[in-house]
């Protein structure tokens, strides 16, 4: 039994292993294949538009992960075609069951991309063009296979013309119309051929050859070769659309044991059953059983003292009884309260989240379900959904509340963070205070929350925009978007777009979505007005990020619309993820959200010290000097002679420059320092910061800027940066810093 799945990138270890098997198949089946082209499959997936094509990789593999076939597609979305670059099976049989299943999936993907046609190359099946008998037999087998789908070589053109005199066995360009009546128009064919020759064969086909081939497409419609192996009526050109990869569904089956019957307690088992009922009828999901994970996965997020308390407190409760915190002592780490009701208040943030016998086992099983979903994504699945309760996004390192005991989102993010950066997008009506507190000092996990403003919405004490942006290394990695009491779909999407823009800039490898459905119209815990159409569009926009996704269920209490809204969200998410994954903008594009300030603040001393240190370019002595310049500016102001431009990204210091007039000159200035956070290097921020610095120097009457740097190889990129920004090398002071390490002095006139 095999499955065909799509490989989106080579970030995951499982995908790297799969790519290794694919590359071995190519080397075995096609020994003349270019080694560099084989090695570029992974980079093409990561950076699709460097080759000006979007690459899609489909792999057929056994349930044990052995690759038995693959297909690599190049998608041109503007012209609207797909080029099948590679298709191969381990056995080498073109017409075998695996090859047929792969090609069926290729055609299905092409249709889903709204492409006007599928193109690929096949070596000729005529003895004159290909005298090698063994190769001729294989070529005929391939063309016979494709004729069964109605795909045939294009004729009466110069596509098979040799690029160089003496070239033989030039390939046919084959066209699969995908539909029974879909003639190939000349204007479209010319665009396709030009794109193939100029992009795929850049450096091989000279411009005059490209023009000659393109102009040779003179027939309209373009002619296809008559059927040679299959009777026309026996071909099946219509695409049989195969189902896309299903979303992995993981359900906390033990959630039902946690059922608090008190009046008004809306977090009930029926929430899961109504969602599951709606999902079951859609065909979008494939349920997988929950795996058990060790406690260390939980304690990597929560304080073990807290989890031990929670487990023990729940175990000691009588069946059917609940303990509600009602006394909240100021926390004293040295002396915990002994009274159970008071101790509950020590660890809880509200009065309505009870300790009960089944709260811990239900929450612990939910964490296992969430981790099972995370590991499904690590195995190569694109979307996994943990349908769990109790929810988790209000649980902090050492606190529970808001119906939440363990923070499933944070547990998932922590597990994924070993493989790359993670973003958590919380779209529950209430602020995701739990993951904010857990990751507040970390830069590898971005926490984003869209929620009701804390002036009126639970948990009331957190979720502010300006005051809560992260601390230390995590400064700028917490992004809150509090909204007013009345929010419709349009207003919500404006906030969502801001959140997605921040996530795009962060460029994570994984996205965790805390799915709250309590943003829906009529939800008893919220005041917003979102409908099923809004949820579908929100899912579509989130899916457009093209990231591996773990969705974890949070709130949502309107039983009448809960299932409908959940399914609408996943329909949009699935459709968009499949369509746009791999189209993310290149990291080198302009960074949004950058602002500059010119006054120096007391906290900048530590920030600059940390920023300069983590660049890795400077010695400990140089790092200390950078801090001293800030301290001198703080102490003496303008009299210090040091001026600064601070580059901030959503409030986080990501770069800075220090400059001042050179004593004894009328208008010459020295650029003492410029540093960029490693995450933002190579993305244009340094150039923007330097231009801003030059502008401030000109405003101060400066006419020339001097900058110096080391001649060591480590500083080659710095020297190239100055030269690329219009600075000229004036002189080199040999052995200035050390033997063999001179000082390179650059200058630039400010006109």
Would you give an account of this structure?
By secondary structure, this protein is α/β, with parallel strands linked by helices. A hairpin with a 2-residue loop joins β19 (643-649) and β20 (652-661). It has 21 helices and 24 strands. The termini are far apart. The chain is flat, with a radius of gyration of 31 Å. The chain is 34% helix and 20% strand.
Short description:
The chain has 751 residues and is an alpha/beta fold. 34% of the residues lie in helices and 20% in strands.
pLDDT averaged residue by residue: 90
Separation of the first and last Cα atoms: 71 Å
Shape: flat
Radius of gyration: 31 Å
- Per DSSP, the total helix count is 21
Look at the helices and sheets and give the structural class: alpha/beta
Portion of residues in helices? 25-40%
Task: Enumerate the spans where pLDDT stays under 50 for 5 or more consecutive residues.
Answer: 581-589
Task: Count all strands and give the number.
Answer: 24
How big a fraction of the residues is strand?
15-25%
Strand order of the largest sheet: 9-8-12-17-16-13-14-15
Major beta-sheet overview: 8 strands, parallel
Can you tag this structure with a few keywords?
about 750 residues; 8-stranded parallel sheet; flat; single chain; 7-stranded mixed sheet; 24 strands
Layout: helices, strands, pairs:
Blueprint: E1 2-7, H1 13-29, H2 35-39, H3 41-46, E2 54-62, E3 67-76, E4 81-89, H4 97-112, E5 118-122, H5 133-147, E6 152-153, E7 172-176, H6 186-200, H7 207-215, E8 247-251, H8 270-280, E9 285-287, H9 296-299, H10 304-315, E10 322-323, H11 340-347, E11 355-356, H12 359-378, E12 383-387, H13 408-416, E13 422-426, H14 433-438, E14 445-452, E15 478-483, H15 489-506, E16 510-515, H16 532-543, E17 549-553, H17 559-580, E18 594-597, H18 604-614, H19 620-636, E19 643-649, E20 652-661, E21 668-676, H20 685-699, E22 704-710, H21 716-724, E23 728-738, E24 741-749
Parallel strand pairs: 4-5, 8-9, 8-12, 12-17, 13-14, 13-16, 14-15, 16-17, 21-22
Antiparallel strand pairs: 1-2, 2-3, 3-4, 5-7, 6-7, 10-11, 18-19, 19-20, 20-21, 22-24, 23-24
Helix pairs in contact: 6-7, 8-17, 12-13, 15-16, 16-17, 18-19
């Amino acid at each position: 039994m095999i499955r065909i799945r799509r490989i989106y990138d080579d970030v995951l270890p499982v995908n790297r292993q799969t790519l290794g098997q694919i590359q071995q198949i190519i080397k075995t089946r096609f020994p003349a294949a270019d080694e560099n082209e084989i090695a570029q499959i992974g980079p093409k997936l990561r950076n699709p538009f460097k080759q000006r094509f979007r690459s899609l990789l489909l792999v057929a593999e056994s349930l044990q992960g052995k690759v038995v076939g693959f297909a690599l597609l190049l998608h041109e979305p503007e012209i609207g075609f797909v080029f099948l670059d590679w298709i191969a099976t381990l056995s080498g049989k073109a017409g075998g069951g695996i090859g047929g299943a792969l090609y069926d999936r290729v055609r299905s993907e092409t249709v889903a991309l709204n492409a006007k046609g599928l193109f690929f190359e096949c070596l000729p099946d005529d003895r004159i063009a290909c005298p090698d008998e063994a190769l001729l037999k294989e070529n005929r087998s391939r063309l016979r296979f494709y004729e069964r789908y109605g795909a045939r070589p294009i004729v009466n053109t110069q596509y098979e013309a040799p690029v160089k005199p003496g070239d033989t066995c030039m390939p046919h360009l084959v066209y699969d119309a995908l539909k029974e009546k879909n003639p190939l128009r000349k204007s479209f064919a010319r665009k396709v051929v030009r794109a193939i020759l100029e992009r795929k064969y850049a450096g091989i086909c000279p411009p005059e050859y490209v023009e000659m081939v393109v102009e040779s497409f003179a027939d309209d419609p373009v002619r296809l070769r008559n059927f040679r192996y299959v009777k026309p009526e026996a071909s099946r050109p219509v695409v049989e659309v195969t189902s896309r990869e299903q979303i992995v569904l993981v359900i906390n089956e033990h959630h039902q044991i946690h059922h608090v019957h008190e009046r008004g307690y809306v977090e009930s088992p029926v929430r899961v059953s109504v969602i599951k009922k709606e999902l079951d009828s859609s065909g979008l999901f494939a349920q997988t059983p929950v795996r058990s994970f060790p406690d260390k996965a939980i304690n990597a997020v929560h304080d073990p003292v807290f989890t031990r308390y929670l487990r023990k407190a729940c175990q000691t409760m009588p069946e059917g009884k609940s303990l509600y915190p009602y006394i909240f002592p100021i926390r004293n780490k040295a002396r915990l309260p002994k009274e159970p009701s008071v101790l509950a208040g020590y660890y809880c943030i509200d009065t309505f989240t009870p300790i009960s016998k089944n709260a811990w086992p239900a929450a612990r099983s939910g964490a296992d379900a969430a981790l099972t979903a995370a590991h499904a994504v690590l195995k190569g699945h694109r979307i996994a959904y943990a349908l769990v309760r109790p929810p988790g996004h209000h649980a902090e390192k050492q606190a529970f509340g808001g119906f939440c005991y363990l923070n499933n989102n944070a547990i998932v993010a922590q597990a994924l963070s070993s493989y790359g950066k993670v973003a958590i997008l919380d779209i529950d009506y209430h602020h995701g205070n739990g993951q904010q507190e857990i990751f507040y000092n970390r830069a590898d996990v971005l926490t984003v929350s869209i929620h009701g403003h804390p002036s009126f919405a639970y948990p009331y004490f957190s979720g502010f925009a300006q005051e809560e942006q992260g601390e230390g290394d995590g400064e700028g990695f917490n992004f809150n978007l509090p909204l007013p009491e009345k929010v419709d779909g349009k207003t919500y999407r404006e906030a969502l777009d801001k959140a997605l823009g921040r996530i795009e800039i962060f460029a994570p490898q994984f996205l965790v979505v805390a799915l709250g459905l309590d943003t829906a119209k009529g939800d008893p815990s919220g005041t917003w007005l979102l409908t099923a159409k809004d949820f579908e569009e929100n899912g579509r926009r989130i899916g457009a990020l093209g990231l591996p996704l773990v969705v974890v269920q949070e709130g949502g209490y309107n039983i009448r619309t809960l299932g409908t809204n959940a399914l609408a969200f996943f329909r949009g998410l699935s459709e968009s993820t499949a369509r746009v994954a791999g189209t993310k903008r290149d990291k080198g594009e302009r960074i949004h959200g950058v602002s500059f300030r010119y006054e120096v603040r007391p906290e900048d001393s530590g920030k600059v010290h940390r920023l300069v240190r983590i660049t890795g370019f400077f010695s400990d002595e140089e790092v200390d000097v950078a801090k001293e310049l800030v301290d001198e500016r703080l102490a003496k102001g303008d009299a210090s002679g040091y001026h600064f431009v601070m580059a901030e990204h959503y409030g986080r210091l990501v770069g800075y420059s220090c400059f001042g007039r050179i004593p004894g000159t009328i208008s010459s200035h020295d650029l003492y320092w410029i540093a960029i956070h490693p995450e933002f290097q190579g993305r244009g921020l340094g150039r923007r910061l330097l231009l801003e610095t030059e502008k401030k120097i000109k405003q101060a009457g400066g006419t020339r800027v001097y900058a110096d740097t080391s001649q060591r190889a480590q500083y080659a990129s710095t020297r190239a940066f100055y030269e690329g920004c219009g600075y000229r090398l004036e002189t080199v002071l040999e052995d200035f810093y050390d033997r063999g390490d001179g000082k390179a002095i650059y200058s630039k006139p400010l006109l």
